[in-house]
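User: Here's a protein and a ligand (DQA). What would the complex look like?
Assistant: Let me lay out the input and then the predicted complex.
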Amino acid sequence: MKILVINGPNLNLLGKRNKAAYGDKSLAELDKLLKKRGEGLGVDIVSFQSNSEGTLIDFIQKHSSEASGIVINPGALTHYGLSLRDALADSELPVIEVHLSNIYAREEWRAKSVIAPIARGQISGLGWWGYIAAMHTLVGELKGEAWE
Ligand code: DQA
């Protein structure tokens, strides 16, 4: 099983950028952690980051046919990225939207997500644990893991 983990604009600067909101782990460290956790679950994690909406869309169009689900932190595209939203919807994959910070506890404009209505769900404010929780949820649901 393959899960795409996608990060949008400015998330390449994780670990340097606004650490109070986004934590001190770099994107490379986060990717490493997710790949390791993915191995434990028997899942192949394919991670990608871009600062450009078009490049994110190209990646989704190219890789969605071989993937089972998407974990995405769309960065600021969360709030206005309608082409990204269409590409995610067109992929027909289960999508979990993740935010490191709590987008509801910050500036008013961050509280609106154009991605959320087409997502399986959203995790906001749990830092890097949000990515782990999203990955576990997708894999559990896709494998049809039972409650007990
Ligand atoms: C973010 C929240 C967005 O509002 C912001 O533009 C980001 C990061 C988060 O992870 O908390 O780039 O998606």
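Summary: The beta strands are 2-7, 44-49, 69-73, 95-99, 121-124.
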